[in-house]
Amino acid sequence: MSEQIEIHVVPLPKSVHIEQGTRSLRHTVVHALHSSLAPLAPIFEQELEAVLGERTGTGNETRTIVELNLDEAMREEQIKIAVAEKVQIVGGSYSAVAGGTAVLLQLMSNEGELPLCTVEDEPDLPYRGLMMDLGRHWHSTDCIRQTITFCRFYRFSHLHLHLTDDPLFTFPLRSFPQIPVSGMKYTRQELEDLIEYAQRCGVQLVPEIDLPGHSRQLNLSEPELFTSGIGEAHENAICLGNPAVLNAVQQMLRELCGIFKYSKYIHLGCDETKLEIFEQCPCCREKMKELNVNDAEGLLRDFIVRAAEIVREQGRQPIVWEGFSPAQGIEIPKDIVVIPWESYYHPADSLAEAGYALINASWQPLYATPTLKWSPEHIYGWHVRRWEHWWDQSKATLQPIELDESANLLGAQFCSWENEESAELELIRLRAPTMVERVWNVVRREEWPSFAKRLEASDRRVLQVLSGKPEQVKKVQKEA
């Protein structure tokens, strides 16, 4: 990397070679040389306008040609950028090329000047996720769309939408139109518009209907079905002994897959299930006898297996939160991706040893809630193969869990839980990109002060992209 020019790009590309001279993006013509890349061109042009303002002129200005292309010989997320007489971005996939345009947005000066350079880049790990909690506080579609743009800018691979929880069930079910009994839900058209926008941005959405716990809205709306007539005693867990409930789950998941047609992963939830609820349910107890299992853990495992089968039938891959225990019993298939977050139900090291593919969502420091959050500096000091926690019941509290290279680790996810829309951007805008840096470049490339300077510059630019105008940005501070 050149010593003469500072590269304010997050995450930092693997290789940047700077030459003398610049090329302006103030007057550009974007050509998609591969037809599949055509939807990306107007997005990039709109973002350039948001940063540089209306690119008006006399008509005689020299226009910089930006070419977007695919190369099947390249790996999926590999990109090469060449800035010379024209600007060329070549990648192994649509999302890679989209990431290349995001690099240009960060690399250019406030006047739209790009250094003549070549950039070669590829992430160390494929999954770089951000989660929005849409099941506790209502978030407008404008907020979700803004978050998709944010993800595109920082080259997140996935945006996880936690669509349901006890307070809200925001997914619009045709099979159960009366759900939810309280709160709002998105229309199918609103979701389809967001899905298409994310696809054009190169960001994959991961939808989640959280089951079998966190399901109070289902129980309130259809108590005869989802609680098998027990009602409040079933609290926030659906009945797993009633065959009609599994049929209803099948309908829900098929609808979810139908709307989220581009999503490779479908999240099933499966965490924090109060197993004692099943122990007290006559219908669930009968199902336990039928399965020949000794406790409700077996019933939960059976549900995970069956729900995963439904998702697989739709050609998708199931994801669950850490929620089932290491206990012997009904086997959870190894093609289910697990997100260890608390290292309490089933710690990351145990899951890795069992052979599961993992995504790191370590509560500390990758969660942001209204009352608990960690500084960007803390996140920068974290490692993608490490799990930490503050809770004394977690295995990761006194001694963080460290996985070696043999673990099948896909990446990591930053989770914004229980936050209102008005707080989202402020909470994630410095923390989440810091996590992406540590997943894209697993080996830390520079010390915190240097990265903080780079993050601050990128933060100013992303606010321009999101708002269409420069904003005053506070410096990256250490936080308690």
Provide a descriptive summary of the structure in words.
The chain has 480 residues and is of the alpha/beta class. Helix content is 35%, strand content 19%. It has helices at residues 40-52, 94-107, 141-153, 188-201, 216-221, 223-226, 243-259, 275-279, 282-291, 296-313, 348-354, 363-366, 376-381, 421-428, 431-440, 448-467; strands at residues 15-24, 28-32, 64-70, 79-83, 87-91, 113-121, 127-133, 158-162, 204-211, 265-269, 317-321, 337-339, 358-360, 367-368, 386-387, 401-402, 409-416. The strands form three sheets. Strands 7, 8, 9, 10, 11, 12, 13, 14 and 17 form a nine-stranded parallel beta sheet that branches. Strands 1-6-4-5-3-2 form a six-stranded mixed beta sheet, covered by helices on one side. It has a two-stranded antiparallel sheet with strand order 15-16. Helix 3 (141-153) links the parallel strand 7 and strand 8 (158-162). The radius of gyration is 23 Å and the shape is globular. Mean pLDDT is 94; it is low at 470-480.
DSSP helix count? 16
Question: What's the alpha carbon Rg, rounded to whole Å?
Answer: 23 Å
Task: Describe the largest sheet.
Answer: 9 strands, parallel
**Morphology:** globular
Regions with pLDDT < 50 over 5+ consecutive residues?
470-480
Oligomeric status of the shown chains? single chain
DSSP strand count: 17
From the N-terminal CA to the C-terminal CA, the straight-line distance is: 34 Å
Give the structural class: alpha/beta
**Overall pLDDT metric:** 94
**Proportion in β-strands:** 15-25%
**Helix share bin:** 25-40%
